[in-house]
Every structure is written in C-alpha cells, then in structure tokens.
Write a structure and sequence with these properties.
- By secondary structure, the chain is of the alpha+beta class.
- The chain has one domain.
- The chain contains 2 helices and 3 strands, in the order ββαβα.
- It has a 3-stranded mixed beta sheet with strand order 1-2-3.
- Helix 1 links the parallel strand 2 and strand 3.
- The longest helix has 16 residues.
- It is elongated and about 35 Å long.
- The two termini are 19 Å apart.
- The relative contact order is 0.23.
Length: 65
C-alpha cells in the first residue's frame, strides 16, 4: 500500500443532529478498513453531538474478518 493510496471510502449524510452512513466500500476485504472508517465516523459524530441512525448502529456491530 502506498502512502496516499485510496483503500476505502465512507459517505454519510447529516440532517440536523442525526447522521446516516450511505455507503461503505473497501478495496481490501478482511483487513478492518470498513470497521475503521465507521469508528472514525462515529468519533466525528460524537464530537459534533450527532445521533446515529439505526443503520450506523448495525454497521458498528459488524466485525472484520
């Protein structure tokens, strides 16, 4: 993996004080990339006091292989 190589992408929307993850993609499966992206998104949400949607809670509970 190169320093600036794109290996994953997460997109989310914010509506007032709630956010929802719309898409989550990683180019290398089983390495925890998706889980890391979700965790970082949750940190941003916590700092901004956003409430998570049901889908975000579901994704957070997923374990990487």
């Amino acid at each position: 993996m190169k320093k600036d190589e794109l290996i994953g992408l997460i997109t989310y929307v914010i509506c007032e004080d709630e956010y929802e993850i719309i898409s989550l993609n990683s180019l290398e499966e089983g390495k925890g990339i998706g889980s890391s992206l979700v965790k970082e998104t949750e940190k941003v949400a916590l700092r901004n006091r956003w409430q998570s949607s049901a889908m975000t809670g579901y994704l957070s509970g997923m374990k990487s292989n």
